[in-house]
Amino acid sequence: MNEATGALRLTADFAYGGDSVLIGRTAQNALGQNLRLETFSIYLGGIELLNDTGTVRLSDAERWNAGEDNVWNYTLQPGVYNGFRIHIGVPAEFNTDTDPTIWPNDHPLGVSGSAGMFWSWNTGYIFSKFDGKADTTGGTNFLHPFAYHIGGDDYLIELRYDAPWEVTECSQHAFLLQGDILDFLATPTDTIDVATDNITHTGDNPDLATRYVAAQKEAVTLTKQ
């Protein structure tokens, strides 16, 4: 770390039924259905410091897949900041009508980096993807597929830390993003039943996408450590 700067560590500490997020892992949802995870991938975009004049962007987008490293590090200029924010999804300026080839191939938004998370037919990115198979009786016959693919500017979720904090030379700061992805299927007033509401690619089932995003927004928290 350069002595004239500070540092920020962002950790995405997602869980799956209280355990780590690993492909093939099974967990039971709020309805007693057993879900086997086959895909979990999510974009964290528009990662920004907040100050009196607006924002300081640290990253346009990061991508996290189940089982991969979930920590990102950034260099900070000294000063007092009013907050910090992050989005689940890709900022609008890079989402609609964007060609992934404008980015380096291995950039999270590039051709290779966005593989499986870009709708070429929709010229937009998939913000989050949660796929698997369920046994809706609570057993171990995982025959019922589910797929929740969320994208579109209207579904961008903003998470904020709104409190002043100071960066000094060599100071280190940490923010933690937390959430259990099973909670993306339930709120206190609405529970998604994978037996009947099991597939959305957003545009083909916007009502289910809206319910899923509402639960996702409640399930994920951002805190300063």
Structural commentary:
This protein has 225 residues and is mainly β. The protein has one domain. 8% of the residues lie in helices and 48% in strands. It contains 2 helices and 17 strands. Strands 2, 3, 4, 7, 8, 9, 10, 11 and 16 form a 9-stranded mixed beta sheet that branches. Strands 5-1-13-17 form a 4-stranded mixed beta sheet. A two-stranded antiparallel ribbon has the order 6-12. A hairpin with a 2-residue loop joins strand 3 and strand 4. It is globular, with a radius of gyration of 18 Å. The mean pLDDT is 94.
Write a short abstract of this structure:
With 225 residues, the chain is mostly beta strands.
Q: Which descriptors would you attach to this protein?
A:
9-stranded mixed beta sheet, 225 residues, mainly beta, 4-stranded mixed beta sheet, globular
Whole-number total of structural domains: 1
Question: What is the strand tally?
Answer: 17
Strand content: over 45%
C-alpha end-to-end distance: 19 Å
- Apparent shape: globular
Helical fraction: under 10%
Q: Could you tell me the radius of gyration in angstroms?
A: 18 Å
Tell me about the biggest sheet?
A: 9 strands, mixed
**Please, what is the oligomeric state?**
single chain
Helix and strand string, N-terminal first?
EEEEEEEHEEEEEEEEEHE
- How many separate helices? 2
Rounded average pLDDT: 94
Structural class call reads mainly beta
Uncertain segments are none
